[in-house]
Structure formats: C-alpha cells, structure tokens
Amino acid sequence: MAARTLPFTKMQGCGNDYVYVDGFHHRVDDPAALAKAISDRRFGVGSDGLILILPSEKADVRMRMWNADGSESDMCGNGVRCVAKYAYEHGLAPKKPRLTAETGAGVLGLDLTVRGDRVEAVTVDMGRPRLERAEIPMAGPPGHVVDEPIRAGDRTFWVTCLSMGNPHCVTYVERVADFPVSTYGPLLETHAAFPRRTNVEFVEVVSRGEVVQRTWERGAGETWACGSGASAVGVAGVLTGRTDRKVTVRLRGGDLEIEWSPEDRGGTVKKTGPAVTVFEGEWALEGA
Prior knowledge:
The protein has 4 helices and 18 strands. The mean pLDDT is 95. It has helices spanning 31-39, 77-89, 181-189, 227-239; strands spanning 5-13, 16-22, 49-54, 61-67, 72-73, 98-103, 106-115, 118-127, 145-152, 155-163, 167-172, 199-207, 210-217, 221-223, 246-251, 254-260, 269-274, 276-284. It has 288 residues and is of the alpha+beta class. It has an 18-stranded mixed sheet that branches.
C-alpha cells in the first residue's frame, strides 16, 4: 500500500517563507505537529511555518497559520499576500483584481498586481492598528505605549508597542546590521510584559521615508521579513515622530512599501510587496 502524501507549495514574500496547503481539497488533522515537522530546515521542507488556505463564509478564502514551533498565530502580512497569489492562480477564488481573506485579525482586502495570469505583487489593507495597551496585549496602565522603557537582560530599550492583529514591539537602534538580534529578540519576545509573547522589530532610521528593519518573530526566531511587523514599524515611526506616513521598509529579504492613512481617510495601514512561488512538492504523512 502506497504511503499517503500531502501536496504542498512553498512560497515566500521578501524571504518570509511558509509551506502552503490547499485546505479546499486536502485535510490536515494535526496542523501544529505538521508545522513543526515540515518547517525544520534540516529534516523538513524548511520554512517559517505552515499556512492552510481554507474556505470561508466571510471572505473569498480563509487563512490559518502556525509558526515553526507549532504555535498558532492570527496573521502574517507576507503570508497573506502569498495566500492571495495561490488562491487566484489555483482557482480557489474569483479571477478578480481584489480579493478578501479571513484571518485571525479579521477580514483583509487584497489588491492584486497581475501580469498575464500570474500575481506579481499584492497590496494588503492591514486595517487599523490597535494602540491601546490591553489590545496588544501588554501589561500596565491603560493608554498607548510610545517610547516606553523596558528592561531586557543588561539593556533598557525604548519601545513602541501595538497590534496589527498580532502583537509587536518596535525599538530603534543605531546600526541594525550589527545589532545582536538573537540575544535580545528572545528576551523581549518572552518578557513578562507580554502575556501572549510578542514579535520584536529592531529598526534603524535612514530618513523620514526609509528605514531598515530586522525582525525577531514570535515562535519562529529571526526571519528575513515580517509584513505585519513592517506595518507596525510604519505606525511606530509616525507615533514617535521619526518617519512620515509613507515609508519604505528595507528587510533582509526585500523591500515593503507601508502607508498609514490619517484618521480622516480611515486610519488604515496598507502594505505592498511581492509574492513568489518557490516550488511544489508532496509530504509523506507518517503512518499513512
């Protein structure tokens, strides 16, 4: 009897790579366990996590994601761009230039840049940032968290925190390329101030329209890009007066364009970037 296999597609947005499974046609019984196994970069496919593309009663498609450590997350800005590309190109959603995706952070609008029959880039309406401390969530008194001191290891960081459907902690450093992200990232991720842990963005300001970002992702470690993190950095730059409402965020895996509209224009964050298919394959299911 032949072993049962699960078709998958590996995709990436600015180097933030996930394994995608068509949940319209295939069932995954234990996605947390599969995420841990398939994400391993020596013994698996190698990725920052697993994303299932599922039917939705609220939108064109539904996205559920698990990090490489098996923990489930509400949203990934780079991941949802690839969801849109996959759904459009594989006929899981209508062939139209604007799709919607249901996520743990709500229903998001996705505007596609299509050449021929292929999606080259996607603009994601990330919605309004959640700025109240309890919405992040983060321990402490009510209010916004802007340039607030927090101690991690032997350093004090001045952090600006918010939620883009998942928690983010943004801090500014002088030379991000040399910064020991792997030392301080996990200390901030698991800090007692964050009851659900947090993603951490270390940012160097180049100009009012350009920043360089390195990201320590909750449950995944340092990744080459984080779309919701870049969105959080765009918001944090405005809140702290460091950058304009439209900014280019340079990540290890590529660039994202972030724009936070004023309150009188909706106050939402839009993020534009690439979505790329890397390869397709089949995963042998244990016990099959």
